[in-house]
Specification:
The complex is a heterodimer of chains A (371) and B (151).
Chain A: H1 10-16, H2 21-34, H3 41-51, E1 56-61, H4 67-72, H5 80-87, E2 89-93, H6 101-114, E3 119-124, E4 127-128, E5 137-138, E6 141-142, H7 143-152, E7 154-160, H8 162-166, H9 168-171, E8 179-180, E9 191-194, H10 201-214, H11 227-230, H12 234-237, H13 241-246, H14 256-259, H15 317-320, H16 328-339, H17 343-348, H18 353-361
Parallel strand pairs in A: 1-2, 1-3, 3-7, 7-9
Antiparallel strand pairs in A: 4-8, 5-6
Chain B: H1 22-39, E1 45-48, H2 56-66, E2 72-76, E3 80-85, E4 91-97, E5 103-110, H3 121-143
Antiparallel strand pairs in B: 1-5, 2-3, 3-4, 4-5
Helix pairs in contact in B: 1-2
The chains are: A alpha/beta (371), B alpha+beta (151).
């Protein structure tokens, strides 16, 4: 009988691949850096991962553009291949796997059965519920049915991308497919939202690695995002912040201020109300991020970002709130909630009437089916 | 305009009044405190440079201020890492790169010698055992006749 992936510890798997102790410490140091953890966590993580079991991971894609998966595969620390071979057992991913058709569906069923209650379910894309779920089907099954079945045996669900986390662009007005985020449909499993359009590669792999390392859901913000990556705004960590404080702003994309690298606030930068790690983790292996390339943040990791008006309109003072009274985020939620009738952000906080109604009409059957 | 370098962009340092940038000064001040604690027997300390919102110019300024020391080590494990002691003794600038040469971590460590360079006790024991085996194999081999005996 083929041994379960749970029988093989990460440390043993690394040794089998000829990775030395120093190489392992280096891997963990880079991962801790990517996860914005304190630097001393690298060696500590190496110690913990040494004996950790490799979890089964199932990756499902629904109503999405595959941009999130493209991002996932471009992680530098840890790399996707090092994750797949050493830290997790990626048992199903319809983009990467060679199998297709019945063979692929059988692999999915087997992975869910063999690891019931223990696997990590990663999902990108929103779930369209219109037309009886007919807007997104695979293997003759709708996305909503596939999600509900796969969620039953999941230890935790990681929603990769703003579409699965908050509905994203499919959820934006007028939402023709009646798309929903995962948290609108699944309510009885731990959910970790890794938002972004797409999310930063290292934030995806770092969140997964953090879960594997600790076996626990990390500290999350009110939108179920890991605080390690989404704890501060882009603005708080932006290297152009001193220009904001000095009142030096670019007025157009080709004026003297733009050439001097001044703050892009007046060109519509959403950094002050956007929580993400772009300003520190950056993109393409830490090369740069949109603001460093001269374009303001578009706020893609926030709920309802597509319905908040022009990407090039400066944030209103009402978005920021009044100092000392409430946080910019609270004010933004109130403003956006008023604009869209509470739908967009209500879903993200899992508290809207529509959400409760949806759940009451679609209760999740948590009992496993006999196979 | 035919080349990227023809594009008229320059980076202006945000706070320069004849001194160091604010971010650089803050890091240097923290290093002073770290050095004092480590020198008095405290635990090693590390700053993750990628977690700091520094401009490219700040980074260069920090490197230039710390300078280059006497020791440079290269580690080949899952890609090349370079660890060099800066001009300030006990302050190490560490760069970890992956197998493709991409920078995956950049740290400043305040410590006598970075932990990753030191051999571990277990590895030394295993190394001694391996050497002993080689010696015994070599010894047995030396006792073997030069030519196989006729049968």
């Amino acid at each position: 009988m083929h041994p379960s992936v749970d029988d093989i510890a990460v440390g043993e798997m690394l040794r089998r691949h000829g990775i030395s102790r120093r190489g392992f410490i280096k891997f963990c140091t880079a991962a801790a850096s990517a996860m914005a953890l304190p630097p001393w966590m690298g060696p500590a993580m190496a110690q913990q991962l040494q004996d950790a079991r490799r979890p089964s991971v199932i990756y499902l894609s629904f109503q999405e553009c595959t941009g999130c998966f493209e991002s996932f595969t471009r992680s530098f620390a840890p790399t996707i291949e090092s994750l797949i071979f050493n830290v997790i057992s990626l048992d199903y991913d319809d983009t990467l796997m060679a199998a297709a058709g019945d063979a692929a569906e059988s692999a999915l069923a087997k992975a869910m059965h063999d690891n019931f209650g223990k696997y990590v379910l990663i999902i990108d894309g929103s779930v369209p519920t219109g037309a009886g779920g007919g807007y997104c089907t695979a293997g003759g099954r709708s996305a909503v049915d596939s999600l509900r079945e796969a969620a039953k045996g999941a230890a935790a669900i990681i929603c990769v991308g703003t579409c699965s986390a908050f509905g994203g662009i499919p959820f934006a007005d007028p939402n023709p497919t009646d798309a929903w985020p995962i948290s609108a449909i699944i309510s009885d499993k731990p959910i970790i939202n890794v938002s972004g359009c797409p999310p930063i590669p290292e934030v995806i792999t770092g969140t997964l690695l953090q879960y594997v390392t600790t076996g626990k859901v990390p500290d999350l913000d009110e939108h179920l995002r890991p605080k390690a990556f989404f704890g501060t705004t882009i603005h708080d960590r932006c290297y152009r912040r001193p220009f904001y404080d000095q009142g030096k702003f670019a007025k157009t994309f080709d004026d003297e201020g733009a050439r001097n690298g001044w703050c892009l606030y007046e060109l519509g930068c959403k950094g002050p109300t956007t929580y993400n790690a772009c300003a520190t983790t950056k993109w393409n292996g830490g090369t740069s991020f949109p603001i460093e390339s001269g374009h303001g943040c578009i706020g893609c990791s926030e709920p309802g970002f597509w319905d908040k008006g022009s990407l090039y309109s400066p944030l209103s003072a009402t978005d920021w709130g009044k100092a000392g009274e409430s946080s910019p985020r609270q004010v933004l939620e109130l403003a956006a909630g008023a604009i869209v009738g509470g739908a967009v952000l209500g879903v993200a906080s899992a508290g809207s009437g529509r959400l409760r109604q949806y759940r009451s009409e679609h209760p999740l059957d948590s009992e496993p089916k006999d196979s | 305009m035919s080349r990227l370098t023809d594009i008229g962009i320059r980076i202006e340092a945000p706070t320069r009044r004849g001194g160091l940038g604010g971010g650089v000064a803050a890091v240097l001040s923290e290093l002073v405190g770290m050095l004092e604690r480590v020198a008095l027997g405290g635990d090693a300390a590390t700053i993750d440079l990628r977690s700091l919102p520094m401009s490219p110019q700040d980074r260069i300024e920090l490197q230039q201020t710390l300078g280059q020391g006497e020791v440079q080590a290269t580690l080949s494990a899952e890609g090349v890492s370079t660890l060099h002691e800066t001009g300030v003794s006990g302050v190490w600038w560490v760069e970890h790169r992956d197998r493709h040469g991409e920078l995956i971590a950049e740290l400043i460590e305040v410590v006598a010698i970075p932990q990753i360079l030191a051999a571990s006790r277990d590895e030394m024991i295993a190394g001694g055992r391996a050497l002993r085996e080689r010696l015994s194999i070599g010894h047995e081999a030396s006792l073997e006749p030069k030519h196989a005996p006729l049968s």
